[in-house]
Specification:
heterodimer; A: 226 residues; 0% strand; B: Cytochrome Bc1 Complex, Chain D, domain 2; 4 domains; two-stranded antiparallel ribbon; elongated
Chain lengths: 226, 426
Amino acid sequence: MKKLAIVTAVVASVLSLIGCGGAHGDNPGQAYMPDMYYSRAYEAYGYNNVAGEYDSLRSRNILYNGMPVIGTVARGESFTFPIPEGDSGYARAASYPSPLAGMNITPAQMKEGERIYLINCAICHGSALDGNGPLWKGGEGPFTSAPRNLKDDYTKALSDGQMYHAITYGKGQMGSYGSQVKPEQRWWIINYIRSKQGGTGADTTAAAAGAAGGAASGTDTTKASN
Amino acid sequence: MSFSKTNVTRIALLGMFSLFLSFNIQAQGAAEGKQLFQQNCNTCHNLDKASTGPALRGFKERGPWADQKEVYKWVKNPASYMNGDRTGYTKGLQQQYGSIMQSFPALTDKQIDAITEYITAPIVEKKTDDDEPKNGNPSKNEAASRNALIFGIISLVLAMVALILMQVNNNLKKLSDDREGILRPEQVPFWKNKVYIALMALVFFVVGGYFVAKGAIGLGRQQGYQPAQPIYYSHKVHAGINQINCLYCHGSAWESKHAGIPSLNVCMNCHKTINEYVKGPKLYNEDGEEINGTQEIQKLYKYANFTPGKPWDPSKATSPEWVKIHNLPDHVYFNHAQHINAGKVACQTCHGNIQDMDVVKQEAELSMGWCINCHRESKVQFNTDSTTGNKFYSIYEKFHNDIKNGKMDSVTVKDIGGLECQKCHY
């Protein structure tokens, strides 16, 4: 009888292991030390599971969104942009000089500018900067507004500051890329676009007008980006 | 007055020709208009949807635009037109949309006519060619399981045939033994035969053991985990069909430990404008039920607290609680930047062909052996270019020299500390 019991137990355990069948669909499968697999310490994108509560911070009415305080300057950040969002800010940005103006861009920065352009911008503006990225495809893509052709006269005539303003806060149907592209990288992108546009006079005039504009724009910093 | 037969034919031909010509010119005008519209207007105007500016279809019936001369004046210089506009219609538009239209002094009257013709052209109903019924999503798994069933039945039948033949063989042998007078011990029936029992036990042990070992190894690994997410977000549509780079949304993979879940403002970069799913293929969930893409975008709007056509306030948005799929135990350190940026490993190496997955599934087992294997085999990509080169690897110059001198033929991850325990267990 004892033997029979042992045999049944073995068979049952085998069947139950087969029955679990590992992870599939909504079932993440079993773990033999869940404490090690699902961190009890606070992890990025994890729940703060304390005392068995799914989201203990929320249950204690602590709202933590992990955003830095407005106006925070990141470590290693050298460029600040004091011009606020909106049409008036956009107009003021026309005379804001590129901090890279007159500087020698290293080939590494140029390459990085291209890489970031291809990831973030080319999806609409096209890898050839012709405003025909995969989301537009000459009207066949899902986007309902034609992205700006970055090689047209309108964009050539834009100042670096205005382009920076558009990347930072968005323009028309384009959203803000402030959270995706760092300030330094934005100037590299602009530099990359300029190099592909082939000779314009716009950036030099902006740089010349920049001295006055930059000095005047120090006052309105309430909504400025970092 | 009488027409000769040839005259009638000539007139008819002439008529047909002029009709054809006029039709041709019209088509050409609309085509030119479409091109001009896309180049100049489409950035801010859509035909049927309010965008940065109002939807343009039927604009002739609104405001002062019935008179084409007013349109010319407006397009060439909107600011001065607005100043002289006594009806206040254009001022109202500026208030509604928050900005004034860009001026297009270079457009000729003829070009504006062509654009107008394109905008006012009647809508041509597009034939929907994807009406053919699709019953669910025919999956490969189904076919595979059907095959397995057939093979199972066949082997069962063969086993029974073999068993019967063995019995027949036994009986015949017994008969012949009886006839020749050879005495043999009484045959034991096969279910009491110890050889059979031992064989069965062995088979049971091997098969059972295989599944037990497999199940035990799989404990805590989530290979095949494919949970439903709060929004049916299809990576196939985004990364596959629309070719959005992985780093567009998961940009922090390039420079931090975590790949990062995009915040809603990244979704809304495109979805402020793209508010319906119409152009892509039909979507199905795991149970083969059809998914309404437009409704899923509406779910996003609910989280984002966004109403189409109104300005969006990102501070009122709430986050969807995405279900984490790829999970590593607490005692394992994994850094995305180290693999993607320094190691130049493609995302698909570990995550599978994400661009073909509607609902993401954990493709790799993410076990230690799996990591180690890759570290054993992956060749390190030394970047010797002085401007973009990876400074991290510069201390391994020795390896370069060794390779140059022929002492080594290649360097594996193992050689640069890829098997050190503390790389993962810290």
